[in-house]
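Action item from last meeting closed. Structure (107 res):
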């Protein structure tokens, strides 16, 4: 009873460990889930009539497709200069401010 009054209650807010990236798409999210499922299936199978080898081949083939899709999406971001400019400046397009003349002090 006294402890509740003497100590402040700490409300933990949910924080994210990783920042989101602008090129990540829903398609990549689904591919990631599929690749993780294939990896788990490959790791949990025993060598029953070559089943483990087939699972390994499926996983490696899917992983190559997934990595290629990530590279494709990441490279597409840089090709669109307006999008990349907006993303670098957190959603607002970068505009250069006019330079002002410096006033020289007369000694």
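Sequence:
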């Amino acid at each position: 009873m006294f402890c509740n009054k003497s100590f402040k209650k700490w409300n933990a807010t949910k924080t994210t460990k990783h920042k989101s990236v602008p090129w990540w798409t829903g398609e990549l999210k689904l591919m990631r889930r599929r690749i993780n499922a294939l990896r788990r299936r490959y790791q949990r199978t025993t060598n029953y009539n070559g089943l483990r080898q087939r699972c390994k081949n499926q996983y490696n083939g899917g992983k190559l497709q997934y990595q290629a899709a990530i590279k494709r999406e990441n490279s597409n971001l840089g090709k669109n200069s307006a999008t990349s400019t907006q993303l670098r400046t957190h959603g607002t397009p970068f505009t250069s401010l006019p330079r002002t003349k410096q006033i020289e002090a007369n000694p």
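Note appended to the action item: Residues 22-88 form one domain.
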